[in-house]
Design brief:
single chain, about 160 residues, alpha+beta, 7-stranded mixed β-sheet, 3 helices, 7 strands, about 15% helix
Length: about 160
């Protein structure tokens, strides 16, 4: 039997306030990187639940998604993983946040930053993914889809059956 190929599913929160985007600076195997509050979809959660959770864990902000900005496919070859290639399927959501909560940031997240598009463009060598700037640019172009297009069947969310 051959091994089944599958991409790693991730979510990202695109949060803009007065021309600046909420970003995180994080330690990765490839050094300090800039990213949106983002992370992996976990078993038993919907995409919307995942992006709310990741935004809270990485930025200490409660995120309310308002639209899907886009879906993106990319591949990353990590030098820190001996050249391992991973394909990512990213779902980026626009939304709103309030003021940050008093809570620790996720392990590896050093701080949050509010950056303009030009500031982001000036440091692409530090981006966690080539999708960081692409998602911001799509957002700035007004690319939005209704959240009703993002459906999670009840069989995929909630408690998983014992295996």
């Amino acid at each position: 039997m051959s091994e089944v190929w599958k991409p790693s599913v991730t979510v990202a929160a695109i949060i803009e306030r007065q021309g600046r985007f909420l970003m995180v600076e994080e330690n990765s195997g490839d050094g300090l990187r800039i990213n949106q509050p983002a992370g992996h979809l976990e078993a038993g959660e919907s995409l919307l639940d995942a992006v709310v959770r990741e935004a809270l864990e990485e930025s200490a902000h409660v995120f309310t998604p308002t639209a899907l900005v886009g879906t993106y496919l990319s591949r990353n070859v990590s030098s820190s993983r001996g050249g391992l290639s991973v394909t990512y399927l990213r779902f980026a959501f626009a939304g709103n946040v309030g003021e940050p909560l008093e809570r620790a940031l996720d392990e590896g997240i050093l701080r949050t930053l509010w950056m303009t598009r030009d500031e982001l463009a000036a440091c692409t060598d530090r981006h966690r993914s080539p999708l960081v700037l692409r998602c911001v640019d799509d957002y700035l172009r007004g690319q939005r889809a209704a959240l009703e297009l993002v459906h999670a069947d009840p069989s995929a969310i909630g408690a998983l059956p014992d295996q």
